[in-house]
Structure formats: structure tokens, C-alpha cells
Amino acid sequence: MRKAQTGSTDLFVAITIFTLLFVLIVLTWNNYAITLNSKFDFQEIQIKAFHISELLVKTAGSPSLWEDQEDPSRIVELGLAKKPNVISKEKAVRIIDSNFLDKEDIRDILNINSYNFTINITDPNGVIKQENGNPLSFGDTQPTVKQSVVIIKRPVLYETENAILKVVLWKK
Amino acid sequence: MPSLKLFCGRNKGFIFTLDATIAAMIVISTLIVSSVYISKSREEALPGLQMLNVGYDILNLMAQKNLWNDGDANSLIDALVPPNYYFIIKRQCGTIDTIWYDLAKDADTPTTIPTGEIVVTGDYAFVKSGPTYCRARFYVWLK
Q: What angle do CA A115, B83, A53 make, to 5 degrees?
């Protein structure tokens, strides 16, 4: 084989390998960017969902007797607990009363305007509890399409009964 | 002037191509290893936090119901701990040297805490009548 021909074959092979690697790195970089973004989004949803569950399960809200307020705009924080991990029936009944608080009010108070949510109180078997014939559930309808959804289940007492408070959160 | 053949032999192109191939293999392996780590890191946060919260929630409920002494703690754990978790509570009362003993455990829970997997644990201090100072420690891990 002649010297010039050897050199150009080598150059051709090297350029081919370089091009393939370059394309591979660009595609992988793009894929990493998408994966990392979705990971950060998912972590943000997880943190929000944990904060919401913690707030609802551990605090009474602010003012602490917010359920007695006539004007929902005076509610600063929402909480459902009368003691840590013990859900107050009065607060639960009041929060599902859509004449008092609709889901947009709740979204504003919880500061989750870019998210959809569902919150419900179930028995240990997952059946939503009822109060005066109304299910103890509020928020948006859960998505049917494939989407990153965070579900947090917190063991609680609903007054004296064992129950689970379930928070479901996903991006709008 | 000596020819190129004297210095490099007949396989000059092959040597450079081998070099490029090794470089390509290193780049590809780096990409594969990094993508494995990136995809793995997504999975780790939520189960650990969820287990920690469940552990503290159960101990909180036991404190609310004052279940430190009787077997009712078992029914609470059966009812409220997710079925995919193993859950043990140990309790220690008195001095720091007092032996820990199992307070509550599902029937199918292993008697020893595993060493080769992630086990989430937390402590809770409480006062029994007497007063006796106690602490409870939970261990949660995936089935």
C-alpha cells in the first residue's frame, strides 16, 4: 500500500470514529439534560408533597381555629391536626366544604399554583372515609395519562379511628 | 532520507486506528457508567423519606394512644404500616445500659435487622408513669 493511500485511509477511519463519537456525545448530552430536568422536577414535587403532608398532619393551621372563620381569605396556613397525627373532624369537614373553600383557594393557601393535587382521608384499606354522606376528599381529578405523580401516605388517627391521609401531587 | 516504513513498519494506519478505537471505548464506557448513575439517583430519595415519615408517624400515634405497654401496638402497626415494609420497634427504659427489647413486630417480620440493605431508623423519647424515662427506636425496611 502506498504511503499517501495509507494516510488517507487512516484519516477516513479516524474522521468516521470521531463523527460517531461526536454524534453519540451530543445525543447523550441531550438525553442527560432531559433526565436531569425531569429528576429535578420530580424532586421538587416530592418536596412540595412532603411539606403539604407534614403541614396537614402536624399543624392546626393559622389561625388555629381557621374552620370557624367566615372569610376564607383570612386563612394563612391550612392544617388538619388537633394534635400531631390526629386529624380534627371539624377541620376535615370544613376543608371539603366547597362553599367555604374551593380547590383554587386551597391551591393559593398551600402555594402550589403550578400543581394539581388530590388529598383524601381513607381507612387502612384505602376506602375514602365519609362524613355526613360526603367523601373526605378534595382537589383535582387524578391524571389518566402517564405523568410523574407523587403519592404520600401518612398514618393518622381520624378522631379516634386509624386512617391514612393521602396527598397526591403532579405538575399542571 | 530513511523511509517511513523504517520507523513505523507497514501498519502505521492500524496503530492510529487502534488508538482511536481505544479512545472511543473509553468515551463509550464513561457514557454508559454515567448514565447508569444518573438513572439510579432518581429512585433513591422518595422511599427513604416515606419510610422515615411512616416510622415517626407510627411512634407519634403510639404516644397519642399510649400504647407503650400492651399488644395493641401490634394491631396499630398491622393496620397502618404499608404492607411492603418490615417494621420493628424496640424499647429501652431506665439507664442507658438497659437492654433493648422488641415492643411490636409483625408475625412475618424477621427477628434480626438486616445488614446488607437500607434500613431507616429513628428514636422517640417518652416518659412512662413512675416516672420512668424511655426511648423507642423504629427500624423500617423494604420487603
A: 30
Give the separation between CA A114 and CA B64, rounded to whole angstroms: 36
Total residue length of chain A: 172
Domain boundaries of chain B, sorted by first residue: 44-142
Instruction: Tell me how far apart the alpha carbons of residues B34 and A103 are, in angstroms, rounded to a whole number.
Output: 42
B82 prior amide bond cis, ω within 30: no
Contact assignment for A35 to B65 by CB distance below 8 Å:
no
B44-142 adopts what CATH topology? Ribosomal protein S3 C-terminal domain (3.30.1140)
**Distance (Å, rounded) from C-alpha B96 to C-alpha B80?**
30
**Model-level ipTM above the cut of 0.90:** no
Chain B residues with CB within 8 Å of chain A CB: 4, 10, 12-13, 16-17, 20-21, 24, 27-28, 31, 34-35, 38-39, 41-42, 45-46, 49-50, 53-54, 57-58, 60-61, 64-65, 76, 79-82
Contact B17 A150 (CB under 8 A): no
Q: How many domains does chain A have?
A: 1
Instruction: Specify the pTM.
Output: 0.77
Q: With an 8 Å Cβ cutoff, are A24 and B21 in contact?
A: no
Count of pairs with CB atoms under 8 A, one residue in A, one in B? 88
- Say which residues have a Cβ less than 8 Å from residue A40's Cβ, sequence separation at least 6: none
CA distance B59 to A160: 16
How far apart CA B123 and CA B139 sit, in angstroms, is 9
pLDDT digits (tens, 9 = 90+) for A116-171: 999 999 999 999 999 989 999 999 988 877 788 999 999 999 988 999 999 999 99
- Per-residue pLDDT tens for B115-124? 888 899 999 8
Range of the domain at A135: 3-171
